[in-house]
Amino acid sequence: MKDKRLFAIRGATTSENTAESIRLAVEEMCREIFMLNSVKAQDIVSVQFTMTPDLDELNPAAALRKSDTGLDTSKIALFAMPELYIKGMPPKTIRVLVTTYLDCDAAVKPVYLNGAKSLRPEFALGN
Description:
Layout: E1 4-14, H1 19-36, E2 44-51, H2 60-65, E3 77-82, E4 93-103, E5 111-112
Parallel strand pairs: 1-5, 2-3
Antiparallel strand pairs: 1-4, 2-4
């Protein structure tokens, strides 16, 4: 990993509570993170997901395995857990933390899509 260091890239999106909607939302979010940050599969340490309690039709890690993100994710460590419930939290939200090696001078680009743009408007795509 010469000239690389470890980075954590955040992202979030929203989804309807169907397996297909969750798969598509995870695919879009992860594809954007991987592409915008020039992530290579062999440099990823792990991908961690959380989901709000109102999403229960598909595990986001399983969704990533079923998705076409442009990277082979079959050998990447994936982990998913429920989001801690907080009164007033945004509904139907999937969050991700991608831990990966990137070039030392990389400028990490978080990805916030769909209804999750309100969580971090300064990082929302298109802003």
